[in-house]
């Protein structure tokens, strides 16, 4: 079993494994997810990413509690991230308690505000209707996120899908600054401005869809199929996926990558060993940029705070 998982130290001193195992899948089959997590633990993955809206909390929780009961791991050796869904902004404490019930855990390591969007209570549709939106009050949401932390329900709090402007606003009223901003990042969406802002404010950037989500209903093969990525892979006797992951890690970010296929799971964790050189970095820097998860489903002309995706990302798209 691999036991050399690299860690990053967050702004509150907590250490987080740099490779996270994503648990979102279009099918959301509990048994498949549970099996994949058990296999991932054997391979050395120690960071698991879930969210209420993925429906994967129960399967992840079962796999972790079984592994803890079997003595495969101790609770303190795994890092679990989950997320506040947009219809729970009115009560993050109750939402996190429900997440803990689903996972069968006493605490999680990281709780993230999934999107800077508030929906009416009870809306569990990942693609909301116009009538589902509510008025966003991030100051109130963040206050209750801080209470989650104070109550010991989680060890860290953070955000996801926040632009630099939205982070800047949050920092104006936050007593506890976010430890992490989890955003889309890969060789075709490099987040230079956001990474620079986060570096200055000691907010760690975590990359979701680090392969561009090939095979997801909304994802693309553009990243792993890109000729530049493929040629760098060939040069290092690595795979395109490993190049994408290694590039993320070399930029100081952690990567949250999903595969439920044993061969690809091994391949992905093996990216820790892949070292790219400055020439590779320059080649990637020259690639065209393309944001794949654009968030159109959270914009509308009437009820959303964002009329367009430019509003949602504050022109950082
Ligand atoms: N915060 C957010 O808003 C947000 C948004 C999206 C995702 N996430 C999190 O980030 C995780 C990862 O993102 P993602 O699932 O969208 O994208 P991803 O990790 O970039 O891609 C996953 C897809 O790539 C395939 N794949 C995995 N390894 C591969 C490899 N080595 N070569 C070729 N294909 C490979 C997987 O299929 P197989 O399973 O068949 O290998 C799956 O279809 C999610 O599971 C979720 O936990 C967060």
Based on the model shown, name its key terms.
TIM Barrel, eight-stranded parallel beta barrel, 15% strand, 11 helices, two-stranded antiparallel ribbon, binds NADP nicotinamide-adenine-dinucleotide phosphate, alpha/beta, 317 residues, 35% helix
Question: Would you spell out the secondary-structure blueprint of this structure?
Answer:
Layout (H helix, E strand, L loop, with lengths): L6 E3 L5 E3 L1 E4 L7 H14 L3 E3 L7 H13 L9 E6 L7 H12 L4 E6 L24 H13 L3 E7 L3 H10 L6 E5 L7 H9 L3 E5 L18 H9 L4 H11 L3 E4 L4 H8 L8 H8 L23 H4 L5
Helix pairs in contact: 1-2, 1-9, 7-8
The structure holds NADP nicotinamide-adenine-dinucleotide phosphate.
The site of NADP nicotinamide-adenine-dinucleotide phosphate has 31 residues, from strand 10 and helix 9.
GO molecular function, one term: oxidoreductase activity
Subunit structure: Monomer.
Keywords: NADP
Outline of the structure:
Monomer. The model has no long low-confidence stretch (mean pLDDT 96).
Structure write-up:
This protein has 317 residues and is an alpha/beta fold. It has one domain (7-312): NADP-dependent oxidoreductase domain (TIM Barrel, Alpha-Beta Barrel), CATH 3.20.20. The chain contains eleven helices and ten strands. The protein has helices at residues 30-43, 57-69, 92-103, 138-150, 164-173, 192-200, 227-235, 240-250, 262-269, 278-285, 309-312, and strands spanning 7-9, 15-17, 19-22, 47-49, 79-84, 108-113, 154-160, 180-184, 204-208, 254-257. It has an eight-stranded parallel beta barrel with strand order 3-4-5-6-7-8-9-10, surrounded by four helices. A two-stranded antiparallel ribbon has the order 1-2. The N and C termini lie far apart (41 Å). The model has no long low-confidence stretch (mean pLDDT 96). Residues 22-24, 49, 114, 160-161, 182, 208-216, 219, 224, 239, 241, 256-261, 264, 267-268, 293 line the site of NADP nicotinamide-adenine-dinucleotide phosphate (NAP). NADP nicotinamide-adenine-dinucleotide phosphate binds at residues 22-24, 49, 114, 160-161, 182, 208-216, 219, 224, 239, 241, 256-261, 264, 267-268, 293. Belongs to the aldo/keto reductase family. GO terms for molecular function: oxidoreductase activity. The record marks 83 as: Lowers pKa of active site Tyr. Residues 27-287 form the NADP-dependent oxidoreductase domain. The active site is at residue 54.
